[in-house]
Every structure is written in C-alpha cells, then in structure tokens.
Write a structure and sequence with these properties.
Length: 208
Amino acid sequence: MREDVLTPEERYRERAQRKKELVDRRIARATIDRGVVVVNTGNGKGKSSSGFGMLARSLGHGFSCGVVQFIKGSFSTGEDAFFRTMGDAFADRLDYHVMGEGFTWETQDRDRDVAAAQAAWAVAASMLADETYDFVLLDELNIALVKEYIAVEQVLAALAARPPRQHVVITGRGAPDALVEAADTVTEMRLVKHAFKAGIKAQLGIEL
C-alpha cells in the first residue's frame, strides 16, 4: 500500500515494522559471544560516569568486578563512597582500588605521578590476567597513557591476553589511536556546554 494513502497510525506501524525487521536481522547476525573492550574518551563530561554505570549493571548481573582509579585519589568521589558503603552487598564480588595522587596540576611532581600510575597498572594488570574478574573498570587510564606514565604497548598486550569472556572499560580523555583501534566499542564524549566555564564550581552528585 502506498504510504501517502495510509493513516498516520498505519504509517507509524509500517515504519516501526520495517525498523523491527532491520534490527532483528542485525541481532541474528551478531553470533559472537565474548568479552569486549569499551573505551570512553573525549573532552565531554560522562566518561567515568558511564563506566561506573556499567559497573553497577555488571554487579546487578552477579559479575565479579575490579576497579582501578588511576588519577583520582586526592579527594573523595560519590562513586567511591557509594560502592565502598555497599561493601556488605558486594564484598565478595567487588575489588576497588583508588590509586591516583590527584590531578597532575595538583601534584606537580612527574616522578611521583609515574610511580603512582605504575603501581596502579600493576594492580590492573593482575586483574586483566585473572579469569575470576568478569568486568574490569580502569578509570582515567587514558590520562596515564597520554602522559606516558604507562606504555600503551603494555596495555594492549594485557588486553589481548586477558581471559576471553572478561569485559574491560577504559575511561579518560585523549585515548591513544592504538587503543581506539584495539577496542570493540569507542564513545567520544563531545563538550557542548559545561557549568564550570560559567563559574559554577564542581557539584556533589554531578562532578564529585
């Protein structure tokens, strides 16, 4: 039937049916079942927030999870407080490490920053080599890679050798091209507006 003679309701149903058929075909073609590497990068807000959302989702599915935060550490964040206070519920399934020294413009000590990043990477690498971890979040790892605190080749090798069903989420702006190429899913957060540029300080529950 021609679309121009259909009622709005019929036109809506027809278009929805075509969309459903397309989606169903794509679902049918997706037959590979394995762990994925997700990279959240870009200058926009929401990279870590998305990662912690996936952490909550994974815990909800009963996964064993690991978290290493590479830069944050000099101040408390809401996600850190939440997941730590929920320790009784997740104690046997969540391994949480805050190992940063704070932002690099605060520490102003490259040797100290490198040492902290290397210590965090040692913990992260052990998680990536351990099949008991179903989900690993490496928060702000991209910053450590951009600053060359950690060699990207080390990270790529660990990702390639990890257990087949292990999911890994890596956050932080400036993800190296080699990591983007190796990842399964990459999202670039684009900054449109940010309250901080209007002089509004970081807010609990939003930035912290």
